[in-house]
Amino acid sequence: MSMNISFLKHTHLEEVFHYPIDNTPDHIAIIMDGNGRWAQKRRMPRAAGHKEGLSTVVKIVKASVKCKVKFLTLYTFSTENWKRPKGEIEAILRLPKEFLSIYLPDLISNNVRIEAIGDIEHLPVHTREAIKYAIARTRENDGLQLNIALNYGSRHEILDSMKELLTDINNGKVSLEELDEERFSGYLYTTGMKDPDLLIRTGGEKRLSNFLLWQLAYTEFWFTDVLWPDFSEREFLQALKEFRQRKRRYGGV
Ligand code: IPE
Ligand code: IPE
Ligand code: MG
Questions:
Q1: CB of 79 closer than 6 angstroms to any ligand 2 atom
Q2: Which residues pair with 115 in a beta bridge?
Q3: Which residues line ligand 1 (CB under 6 A)?
């Protein structure tokens, strides 16, 4: 385990970038897309793009800590990504353990709390155990909450919640009369979290790909053609800057 990489301590970024902490989104969700194309452009295997994408994750987590973001939700593997070749799936699902074995000490010392959203029980044991260990080790932290969306699909989440809710209704724990949006939200994987204020999607596609369909109802969207491995603090701060200029009306005037 490499312990000498301290991504928050040895940085000169403060001198280069102005880190805004006023009117920063409390919750940022990111669809980290474009790893495969990044690698293919370089005639490298797609897995190399996923690995390269990890360095962007480090940068963006760091920037989020500095900007005092409360929740950062990263779309890492979708329920639809099982359609990919076996080798690529294996490569992607090795990354959480690889990432955490290097950076968990740093995340702990920076008060980051790790959570997972998605069906993590149906992941390979090494992936699941690495995530569960990180969740347990950071449970007491109250800084940035880093939500790793792994084997996540929004429709699956909504159906799962519905089933749980119906069980509670049948058992008399919840009555139909008291069921409202807030109560329903409590059955989702994101229970206890504020809905995302800002959604970022890299890689040029303009779609949600089954990400947080319920939670993104009033989220501001920001898209960039930049592929995830090339995404940097600069673009991240640009997204925050543009977010600050958005006028959120929530249906009002
Ligand atoms: C996003 O990058 C990462 C995952 C879906 C796991 P892609 O692998 O989708 O990259 P592109 O979109 O093919 O370039
Ligand atoms: C969304 O990207 C999933 C993740 C980033 C984990 P995809 O590459 O799977 O989305 P589509 O297939 O282009 O919609
Ligand atoms: Mg993609």
A1: no
A2: 147
A3: 32-37, 77, 81, 92, 203
Torsion, CA 219, CA 222, CA 226, CA 228, rounded to 10: -20
Residue 82 is assigned to a structural domain of this protein: yes
Q: 81 catalytic, yes or no? A: yes
Euclidean distance between CA atoms 127 and 101, whole angstroms: 11
Residue 40 sits in a domain of what CATH number? 3.40.1180.10
CA distances for 55 relative to 133, 142, 212, angstroms = 21, 24, 24
Domain holding 130, by residue range, is: 20-154+195-245
User: Into how many domains does the chain fold?
Assistant: 1
241 in a structural domain: yes
Question: What gap in Å lies between CA 172 and CA 243, rounded to an integer?
Answer: 43
pLDDT in tens, 62-100: 999 999 999 999 999 999 999 999 999 999 999 999 999
Ligand 2, closest atom to CA 228?
5
In Å, how far are 30, 49, 58 from 231, measured between CA atoms? 11, 12, 11
Catalytic, 33? Answer yes
Q: What is the pLDDT of residue 6?
A: 54
Among 35, 81, 147, 151, the active-site one is 81
Residue pair 106/5 in contact by the 8 Å Cβ criterion: yes
